[in-house]
Prior knowledge:
Layout: H1 2-40, E1 58-60, E2 65-66, H2 68-71, E3 77-82, H3 87-105, E4 109-114, H4 126-136, E5 141-144, H5 149-154, E6 158-159, E7 161-165, E8 170-174, H6 190-199, E9 214-215
Parallel strand pairs: 3-4, 4-5
Antiparallel strand pairs: 1-2, 1-5, 3-7, 6-9, 7-8
Amino acid sequence: MQFEFRKLANYNKLKKMKKGFIFFVLMIACGFLLSFINTNTKTELGLNAPIPVADEKMKDVSGKEVSLNSSKTSKGLLVIFSCNTCPYVKLSESRIKSLTDECQKKGIGCIIINSNEAQRADEDSFEAMSRYAKDQSLSCSYVVDANSKVADAFGATRTPQVFLFNSKGLVYKGAIDDNVKDPAMVKTHYLNDAIEAVAKNEIPKLQETKSIGCTIKRQD
């Protein structure tokens, strides 16, 4: 009887040790995973931040090399991360065209950036971008973000995703409006309101919203 009791006690001890070892291994694995995520996730640009990588040269569909610095004006700069084929971009095409035109009319610089580096061989090639810009009658620069370097600096993750700067820093980021699927159902025109504020040297009342769209296709 005593032998059986000792045997049971040893079994329970081993069982506890086994559970403890498994828990330890899981904790180590979780720590490694969190470390990997933290070192590979880009932090989105914060409000009031200056324009990052402002002198990075990017190829425009015109064939010229442009930068964010060369695209901005004394009033500010609108940056739109976009592409050729994302369904959400397709739904927003008329709005993107209208808003970039409006920016230029109000003396604010604007640039559309294609960061889909993983699709340069097909839908988001430079040639496809050139055709797209022509079809859309874009009046602002539409540029290639090689290796998604500018998107990484902004922490941009979606298309379309917008960042609006005044002369001092970032004053609005996020979505174009509150209904990407149906422009007729839009109730709040986030970006347009922000552009109006910047044009008047004011700070937008709403400065941050959540962008809804396709993920930027970065190269692995």
